[in-house]
Amino acid sequence: MSSKAALENALREVKYPGFSRDILSFGLVRELSFTDGKALLEIAIQTADPNIPVTIKKEAEAALAAVEGVSEVEVSLAVTKPDAPKAAGGMVDQNRQGSIEGVKYAIAVASGKGGVGKSTFAVNLACAIGRILEKEGRKNAAGIMDCDIYGPTVPLMMGINSRPYVEDNRIIPLENFGLKVMSMGFLIDEDAPVVWRGPMIMKTIQQFSHQVNWGELEVLVIDLPPGTGDAHLSLVQTIPLDGAVIVTTPQPAAWQVATRGAKMFSKVNVPILGVAENMSYLEDDKGQRQAIFGEGGGKITAEALDAPFLGQIPLDPEMRISGDNGLPMVISNPEKSTSQEFYNMAAQVLSAVRNQ
Fold first, then answer.
1. Using CA atoms, how far apart are residues 52 and 264, in angstroms rounded to an integer?
2. For an engineered disulfide with 294, which of 156, 211, 250, 320 has Cβ 3.0 to 4.6 Å away?
3. Looking at the domain assignment, is residue 89 inside a domain?
4. Are both 117 and 174 inside the same structural domain?
């Protein structure tokens, strides 16, 4: 193991105060070098709590000093105060610093590749979670953030074609079916291409996270674009995610990519709440199942990630039609077996995130 690798391993033991995530996965480390026994560390922190930088510096110094071969440690801090909105009464919630104000659990829905129905899955999962929370007595307690910057389809599937407005310098998300919704699709013309580089993606995700008035939500479902690019890295650096759900289809071309992509979350200490297999089979009029895209990909992915297998969603034409018409199937036909499978998965995800 190289000396720098040993230093990085040591820093993974330095947690951000109040969180289980380390300063490396939070993206706080700006520079790390090792020369002639001297470890040099530069950290950039955004916080209004003066105790947090002191704690992090002290623990980082101790961690680096304990590495074999280190004779001198120098830790420098760059501290800035966030522009994050204040909670009721004017107090900033330091225990949730960096999180989305008013949101208890932030859950990402991700896939390794496109074409697996991830956004359709995310919309139906979010709606199912919202209905479960409503039955528990909590109305309007769920939302969905569409971070698929290049191909935002959530507005279509949620039946929303208006634009959000700004109140007190914060964006008010749109609503339908008791779900609060924010998407890049609300902010651009329908036929306008999104040709953006990393910094612009980062800025947009920061705005969606900290400049949108989500109100009081128990769960915010975040629809990620396919892959492990700028949007993913920006998100995990911006929001302390409480978990991720991985969506794949049965064939190797999908689950192999999904498995590789999902490992990004483990590297930044985001737990995998489960794996869902979409387009698992097509059921004919006689009730016979046809494995159009093969079999077993979801379970293989779950085993590879050491994560729960949430279940199978069939290749259901009604789900596509419902999405195109802006009426998610779990809302339009909640008693159908496909919808019931979504409600079952939603219950599993809620239980997993609540019992972490």
1. 27
2. 250
3. no
4. yes
CA 319 to chain centre: 23
Question: How many structural domains does the chain have?
Answer: 2
The model carries a pTM of 0.70
301 phi and psi, to 5 degrees? Answer: -65, -45
On whether the CB atoms of residues 331 and 177 are closer than 8 A, the answer is: yes
Enclosing H/E stretch for 31: strand 29-35
Neighbours of 121 (CB within 10 A): 23
Sheet architecture: strand order including 72-80: 29-35, 38-46, 72-80
143: left (phi over 0), alpha (psi -120 to 50) or beta: beta
Average pLDDT over residues 5-9: 89
Distance of CA 214 to the CA centre of its chain: 16
The CATH number given to whatever domain includes residue 37 is 3.30.300.130
Task: Report the pLDDT averaged over residues 55-79.
Answer: 91
How many other CB atoms are found less than 10 A from the CB of residue 91?
8
Residues 123 and 38 in one domain: no
Q: Is residue 86 part of a domain?
A: no
Question: Which three-class secondary structure state does DSSP give residue 49?
Answer: coil
Integer Cα distance of 162 and 174 in angstroms:
8
Q: What percent of the chain has pLDDT over 70?
A: 83
Domain end among 21, 48, 80: 80
Nearest CA to 108 among 81, 145, 136, 134?
145
* Predicted local confidence at residue 257, as pLDDT: 75
pLDDT tens, position by position, 222-263? 998 776 655 566 666 677 789 999 998 888 878 887 777 777
Tens digits of residue pLDDT in 45-62? 877 678 888 999 999 999
Please give the share of the chain, as a percent, with pLDDT higher than 90. 41
The per-residue b/e assignment along 136-170, b for 16 or more CB within 10 angstroms, e otherwise, is eebeebbbbbbbbbeebbbbbbbbbeeebeeeeee
- Across 25-52, average pLDDT: 84
**Residues 281/279/161/178 CA torsion (nearest 10 deg):** 80
Domain enclosing residue 275, as ranges: 103-354
